[in-house]
Amino acid sequence: MVHVYKRSKTPIPSWQVMRHGGANNIAPQCKDRFLVMWNAEVVRRNGTWHYVFQFDSRGSLEKNPLAMMLYPSTEPGSYPGDLDWGQWLSSDWEVIDEEQRWQILHPQQLRAGDVVISDVRPASGRAAKLQALPA
After folding, report:
1. Taking Cα atoms as reference points, which of 54, 53, 74, 79 lies closest to residue 64?
2. How confident is the model at residue 131, as a pLDDT?
3. Among the four 5, 38, 45, 124, which has the fewest Cβ within 10 Å?
4. DSSP for 17-59, written as a single string
């Protein structure tokens, strides 16, 4: 897993690129050729959005058999390879390790107005129904 930390003054629309892939042009320490956006975690603190994007590093964009089972048969057998991650991230980002990720997502103290959004993952077509919880 490759973790990328990015700060922004405005929200970043990352939902559209979940489960999309592209050439690995941001993490030279990772030897895999491709990265697929797997998750986005966000902390809003002091008016700034702090994002941790999680990328699955892979040798190809082909889905494994388990992924093929979880998604409807109408979906393609590989992740779209339509992104240039360096261009999408633009500026003000860095590859971080798991310890740095933890420190960003679990600040010592949250204040009024701070927000933490974690584990954002798209649900498959079969599991995407929302149900209201009883009051």
Report:
1. 79
2. 41
3. 124
4. GTT-EEE--S-TTS--SEEEEEEEEEEEETTEEEEEEEEEEES
| β pairing state of 34-45 and 48-58 | antiparallel
Distance CA 103, CA 106 (A): 5
Q: Tell me the backbone φ, ψ of residue 22, rounded to 5 degrees.
A: -170, 170
Q: What is the pLDDT of residues 72-110, one digit of tens each?
A: 666 678 999 999 999 999 999 999 999 999 988 887 766
d(CA 48, CA 103): 16
Amino acid (one-letter) located at 98: E
42 backbone dihedrals φ, ψ, rounded to 5°: -135, 140
Q: Tokens 């975690």 belong to which residue?
A: 41
**Phi then psi for 88, rounded to 5 degrees?**
-65, -40
Q: Which token pair is 13?
A: 């629309």
H or E element: which one contains 98? helix 98-105
Amino acid (1-letter code) at residue 113:
G
Phi/psi of residue 65, nearest 5 degrees: -55, -35
